[in-house]
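Appendix B. Extra example for self-study. Work through it before the problem class; the solution is given directly after the inputs so you can check yourself.
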Amino acid sequence: MWRYALRRLLQAVPVFIGTTLLIYAMVFALPGDPIQALAGDKPVPENVLQTLRERYNLNDPLLIQYGKYMWGLVHGDLGENYTGQSVSEMLGGRWTVTARLALTAWIFEMVVGIALGAWAGLRRGRLADTLVLGGTTLVIAVPVFVLGYTAQLLFGLHWKIFPTAGTDDGWPMSYILPGIVLGSLGLSYVARLTRTSLAENLRADYVRTANAKGLSRTRVVGRHALRNSLIPVVTYLGVDFGNLMGGAIVTEGIFNLPGIGQQVFTSIQLKEGPVVVGAVTVLVLIFLLVNLVVDLLYGVLDPRIRYE
Amino acid sequence: MSEGPVTALEPDGAAAVAVAGGEIGRASLWDDAWRDLRRRWVFWGSAAVLALVTLMAAVPRLFTGKGPNEGCDPNVSKLGPSGAHWFGTDLAGCDYYVQVVHGARPTLLIGVAVTLVALLIAVVFGTLAGYYGGVADALIARLTDVFFGLPFVLGATVILVAFPGHGMWAMTLVLVLLGWTTMIRIMRGQVISVRDADYVQAARLLGASDRRIMARHVLPNAIAPVIVVATLNVGHVIVGEATLDFLGVGLQYPEVSWGLQLGQAKDFVVDHPHLLIFPGVFLSATVLSFLMLGDAVRDALDPKLR
Amino acid sequence: MTEATGAKGSTVPAPRPDAPLLEVDDLHVRFRVRGQDVHAVNGLSYTLDEGETVAILGESGSGKSVAAQAVMGILDVPPARIERGSVKLRGTELLGLPERRRREYRGDRVAMVFQDALTALNPVFTVGDQIRELYRVRRGLGRKESKARAVELMERVRIPSAARRLGDHPHQFSGGMRQRIMIAMALALEPDVLIADEPTTALDVTVQAQIMRLLADLQDELRMGMVLITHDLGVVAGVADRIVVMYAGSVAEQAPARALYARPAHPYTRGLLASVPRLDRRGGPLLPIGGAPPDPAALPSGCPFHPRCPRAEAVCAAERPPLVAVAPGHDAACHFAAEVHGAEPE
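Solution. Structure tokens for the complete assembly:
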């Protein structure tokens, strides 16, 4: 197991470097003046542009620029906006909101997704299966912001079950509706994946063996088949954390939750490019970290992979 | 970032379809699939919707006499549906029905173009990497990992914020950049599993060139799952494009697309829900059709599930 | 191990000692696949006594595995359906039992060894977990005791350094060792009947012999009845007391092993024997059976073997031959059984 963990850690290093370099290159190495590009058509005084060019080391070669930027990033320095305000300060108190929202959504999609998927997988081809398949396909087909506004209109304004926006009611009340909206897409994939995986595993030879051992149906399904079916689901949950981070921008924008996503959302509208780049890069780093943890967990779940 | 077994946007089933390959079964695989598809109403329903939307995108004049952003009257903005304006009017007072008809083209074009380019990249490089292995394969696999480490919305947002220009081609480029990884992983995996099959070895012993083996033996037997994922991918790209439009980093006025219409509707949803409903229904029906088509093709190709 | 036998009687009905250990009668199993009815088993009957080994011999697709799973009660219903027939264990009818009661027989009274241990063992649990599960769930034993039992059992199937390997996963064992673990799991609750479904097919020839030896030894020790399912005449020869030859889901011939080898009474059995190399007939020609086994979804009329049979006549296509006795304990389903039986062995 330790060798597996070490190998995974070593494999993660080039991905970390490659992905951040990719973002950096796409933002700062495109033709034209990146600082002006980040401002879009917004007028920015020449002296501010000049300061920012120096601030982002744009006079150095690309790799040096990248090195300096990353060095700052790991020290919590995410750059400055056009008025000289530090990006990390702007984001300061917002982390808890985003963390709460993402975790609420993650738990929701994990628990409800696996339950729905198992329900459908056990009743393959019957009504439950059709309902889950149809419902999840529909959720995937509707953009998350359309779903968000619809949910806000119905559950917030119309029926007044949940608060419409903001975090005044604290966790969990203020986070339930945004969490469900944010997690709905992932839930659909988790349910579909669990369903297929479980239906496949129920036909596996070792399930026949478990039956031959005279175990109860609950034990055969719950311990033998489901345990194996969850291996791909866990991998997906890791990958999906990145989608949650992206979705948080949309969801926090809609429900006016004062998190990182909302800052990115408003910064895009205000054409505050440096803030967007700084915040999103950190979100990507978090995603990569979470994925690494999930990868390690994968080794625990599937013993075969440790000995590849 | 790992090479875990599940990487597809639509993760289930790609592997299951793979099993259906096999040299002898190839022709009959597609024949069987077609025979199976013909009997499904889902297939015909999706095909009908997609045909309608394609027609709308190709020849909007069949549906409306007006061009996009034509005949708008700012004095009648945000009207609800009526006899004069079936879908009401939008923020600028343009007839919403006309705008929605014209919104089909960019939406569909981006979805299809992105998927086709990504598919091409995936098939060419996935086949080469899987077939030859070695350094090129390792390089492509690492590169895939790097791009895969960039979640779609996050990656697209950060790139598009700095991107010069937000037209259709800029969008297509950025979405391709972030969208090729899933398909190449599946393609590569497929090719590796087919590469060592007996019939490929036999062709090699008979002196067939690598190019011939790849074109005649490997590709036809490896491509089915990737085609399925590509079909689903069109739907995913359309949703993704709409999300970027909504965030304000995608297409910009005066372009006309469903995503843009939905994005513009966001501040007026409460009082003017029709602004969200009409483009939303068209977009979702289109995406739904691509997803259901992909699902139907996959089920048809997978004999185990019949 | 032996002290477990006392506890086991409590969960199952009192046995009738005079009845045969296992009695399968006129078993019919159908599959419904893509709207087609597939006749997998068409009237299989055999009996098995304590300490006896009955081999069920047949080509792939002859229905032998399906029949075994039907006896075990682990067929997937649907698509499978047991249409009629009876399976009695010491006189108790198993087929009509509700699932809860039926489950108590599995593993406990009737156990099964599967063909490919790599897929038949759960890849994510250690072999120790999988063996101990039987003791913990079925016998309610505690942690320590179940562990001690598992080690004992693994030693019994001759797995070296058993205690240390308890925490290993199936993929860490060799093919032969994995099959030993399968066997250990099947024997854990000391069943009365062991069904071994192609237990050595996935193994190397040298390992095959070791596994067959082990099975035979354990059967002697535990006085089990064993149903050995195989397509391999070589595996059967050394261990079987009686042989049931299956063709297209029904019995073609059944006889004591020696009698069957010496004087087969069905042209199919004759064909099978002529198609394998034998040391005592070195240099003689090997005669394959022409044609292919019939499609179980579209069985031929009359005798299912007649399209491939060298001595088929008009009656064979028209009438299905009943199972008739050619000697005591020796039956064959052939219109010309007596003549085939009487003919000189080839």
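Self-check: Residues 1-12 of chain C have pLDDT under 50 and may be disordered. If your reasoning did not lead you there, revisit section 3.
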